[in-house]
Amino acid sequence: MFRRGFDQFRNMRDSEGFDFGRGFGGFEKMFGGRGQERMFKKGNLQFMILNSLKEEPKHGYQIIKDLEEQFKGFYSPSPGSVYPILQMLEDREFVSVTKEGNKKIYTITEEGENFLKENGDQNEFANSMKQFQNFNREDMKTLGADIKEAVNAILTASKEAMTDEEKRKQFDRFLTQIKDQAQNLYKEDDNHDK
Description:
Number of strands: 3
Largest sheet: 3 strands, antiparallel
CATH class of the largest domain: Mainly Alpha
Strand order of the largest sheet: 1-3-2
C-alpha cells in the first residue's frame, strides 16, 4: 500500500510538476488548464463578479482586472469566461447595463444583491480564496521551491524506508508528526481568524 501510494505520488509529480510559478501546477488544474478538469467553476465566478459589482459599477475589463488582483496574478479569467456570465447575470436581472461610448457598464441590481445575500454561504470557493489577500507572488515562488525541495527529500527518505522495517516505522512516525504539525498550524490560523 505504501509503495503504491508512493508510485502514484511520483507519477503525479512527474506528470504535473511542482512548478509554483505562473499557473502553479495545481492552479492550472484548479482553474482549468487545457483539457484538464476545472475546479474553478463558472458558478463560483458568478458570485465573485457580483461581489465585485457591489463595490461600484464596472465594465467587463475592470471586472477581469479586479478578479486578477484578488488572486494576486495567479489567475486571470478570460473574456470568454466573464462576458457570457455577465450576459447570464443580465438575463436573470442580477445586473443592469448602461452604455458609455463603446463600453457596457454593469451595475448590480437589487435582485442581484438579494441573490448574494441568500446564496453567499454557497460560495465556499470564493471564501476559501480569501487566503490570497496576504499572498505575495514572489513569496509564493520561494515557498514553492521550498516545498518542492521538502517533497523531494521526503520521497528520497521514503525509498530508504522501504529497505528496512525499523526505518519504515521511523518514517511513518515522521509522516504522522508532519501531518500533526501542519494541522496544528492550520488550527492556530483558524483560531486567529475568529
